[in-house]
Design a protein that fits this description.
single chain, mainly beta, Immunoglobulin-like, five-stranded mixed β-sheet, four-stranded antiparallel β-sheet, about 60% strand
């Protein structure tokens, strides 16, 4: 499991810090690096923010998982998920744990792939019409190489 800190609106970890981890789950829900592309799977993501400003954030977290072919080959959009976030009573730690489902057949070619998870944030404004502004908070995780294959036996 790869864990990284992500870029936030302040460079002071005591005020606001964040981290994200991700790994691939096979059709049985087990962490795995060999996936039958004709079975459902998921990218499991744990992320959080901490610090004295953590409770003040609102908006939406946006998760996107992509598969990049190792060497020549196709790339695939594995799935996306939006997670709304509201103001909460004063706390210094906020965490989320989600699975981004990958439907069977999303990856259409056998081979090795690097899975990349992108985490971004936006705030919704009460304007007419409503609008959404992307913030500079972002995180990226590269899951080690996985093998997608067609199950023969």
């Amino acid at each position: 499991m790869t864990k990284i800190n992500f870029d936030l609106i302040t460079n002071n970890a005591a005020i606001l810090d964040g981290n994200v981890t991700a790994h691939l789950l096979d059709g049985d829900g087990d962490a795995n690096s060999v996936i039958d592309r004709h079975q459902a799977s998921a990218v499991h993501v744990d992320f959080g923010i901490s610090g004295t400003w953590a409770w003040l954030l609102w908006g939406t977290w946006h998760l996107k998982a992509v598969a990049e072919s190792i060497g020549p080959g196709p790339e695939f959009n594995l799935g996306t998920m939006d997670i709304p976030m509201t103001l909460v009573p004063p706390v210094t730690n906020r965490t989320w744990s989600v699975n981004i489902p990958i439907p069977p057949g999303t990856v259409t070619a056998d081979g090795p792939y690097k899975i990349v998870l992108l985490l971004t944030h936006s705030v919704n404004l009460a304007t007419v019409p409503p609008s959404s502004l992307r913030t500079r908070m972002a995180g990226f995780v590269e899951i080690p190489v996985v093998e997608y294959y067609t199950h023969d036996i």
